[in-house]
Amino acid sequence: MKTGTISVMEENWDYLIIxxxxxxxxxxxxYQNYFYGKLESKLSPGSCTxxxxxxxxxxxxxxxxxxxxxxxxxSKTEVGAFDARKHFCRIIDVxxxxxxxxxxxxxxxxxxxxxxxxxxxxxxKRFIVHYxxxxxxxxxxxxxxxGFPTPNIKGKQPLQGIQGSLxxxxxxxxxxxxxxxxxxxxxxxxxxxxxxxxxxxxxxxxKLREILNLPPTSPLDTIRRVYGTEGxxxxxxxxxxxxxxxxxELCNKLLRREPSRNIVITSDHGEALGExxxxxxxxxxxNPILLNVPWLKVTGARVNSTHENQ
Length: 310
Description:
Blueprint: E1 2-5, E2 15-20, H1 24-30, E3 35-43, H2 49-56, E4 61-68, E5 88-93, H3 94-97, E6 99-100, E7 105-106, H4 108-121, E8 126-134, H5 169-188, H6 190-199, H7 206-211, H8 219-257, E9 263-267, E10 272-273, E11 279-280, H9 288-291, E12 292-301
Parallel strand pairs: 1-3, 2-8, 2-9, 4-5, 4-8
Antiparallel strand pairs: 3-12, 6-7, 9-12, 10-11
Helix pairs in contact: 4-8, 5-6
């Protein structure tokens, strides 16, 4: 059931759980193994985290604490033209103190522990709890690869690159110039539009990197190259299973403690996994895969589902 674009702060919730880059269709097929509740499909106001933040939180919300596994939402500085300090009464920087240098991400267990600690400290507040999964890197042992370097929130994209592989700045500039030229040419020429679409130069630069025999610069593309598109989709499913299991544990504890409070699970945006040659997510997209997200009103949680990320 689809009910339109989400106005996050106008919805009825006490605890809003954000699964980063979680597609509606994958969530729909898996959530009943972990939760009871009413699921809807809604449209995200943005196709990437910074866009979602700016459109979802236009005002200041002094009653909301944001537990953030994503450095785009932080208590230190503006990132992507969004300054979380101006919108929430407090931001808990789990992405900073809870970053796993081994996996290059924030594990969902760290989000759980931090959330419970601060809810106990501020029981009267509403909480937004932002997990990084199912967003890459993929943390199951089968598909594990190098994750992101420690986030640099002074840069424009704090989640960028692969650990130990920052790449040549000259090469990255070259890639960006070619991609911008492809965008411009595509607008002006139907023939070039068809060519650039087939090469995938506009939606992402990974195809161009592969053509030029350059190494991947993202955990997602590393998995795609090693395991193919189907392997990438399975890695994404494993990441989703892992985070859903942890979220079920959190929800179970919250509902046992305060059964009358409202818990909603949703996402900031979706993730393209090879449909029409498109991967990942990017700004200002109208792709329904990137905009269709779950909206689950949780009434119960199953905690007997197991997961492994070792």
